[in-house]
Amino acid sequence: MAGARPHRAEPGALARPTKGGAVRIRIALTTAIAVITGLTTGIFTLGTRQAASAEGSTTHAPVRATLSDSALAGFSIPVNLPVVTTTTTPPTITTMASKPVVTKPRLLEAPKSTIVTTAPSVTTTPPVAPPAPVPVTDANSVATADWLCIRVHESGDRYNSPSAPSGAYGILISTWRSFGLSGWPYQAPASVQDNVALELYARYGFHPWSSRFACGL
To answer: Does any domain span residue 50?
Structure first.
């Protein structure tokens, strides 16, 4: 008030705020309470709307927080709260595309041919035993004791001696000629004389030789 003296506080008395200061403090407190209440109400309303529209809504309209009449009844200064705009971003769903399964064609193996080898049969022929030696007899050989005895008594076992013209076996010239032989027996090889003697034995045995008796034949 113009011309009023400033009030002095008495010593020891508590300092009392002025009337104008008290009004300003009251307005500030009321404004703070209103702002806190509005923010709380707006956050609660925002949370409720987000929960209700979570199924399909992707974007919400801007939400304007307003104060109730009871909250604004205590002060006359209009309070405009800031407009809170929220945008809900739908969750990004990442799907992993399944890789195509490539099936490699299975190669069919060719059937393995079974080769059966048969060993050739080997037939072993046992060695042929040599024929048994033919026993030496007077009929097939002159190399016997009997023939030796005959030659010794007929010619002294001399085949080609002129002193024994009938040869080793004392064959008569007439008999010699009957076999188609020429000359004298002593003139013929020993093998020819042996063959004539064996031929005579085959026909008559030792009967043509008189010396058979001396040899015990």
So the answer is: yes
The span from the CA of 164 to the CA of 154, in Å, is: 9
| Tens digits of residue pLDDT in 51-72 | 555 554 444 444 444 444 544 4
Would residue 113 count as lying in a domain? no
| pLDDT reported for residue 128 | 83
Range of the domain at 33: 19-72
Last residue of a domain, one of 28, 55, 72: 72
Instruction: Please choose, from the candidates 183, 194, 186, 179, the residue with its C-alpha nearest in 3D space to the C-alpha of residue 155.
Output: 186
Distances (CA, A) of 201 to 31, 32, 133, 134, 185: 178, 175, 22, 18, 17
Whichever domain contains 167, its CATH number is 1.10.530
Summarize pLDDT for 91-127 with one digit per residue, the tens. Answer: 555 555 556 666 666 666 666 666 766 777 777 788 8
Residue 16 CA to residue 7 CA, distance in Å, equals 10
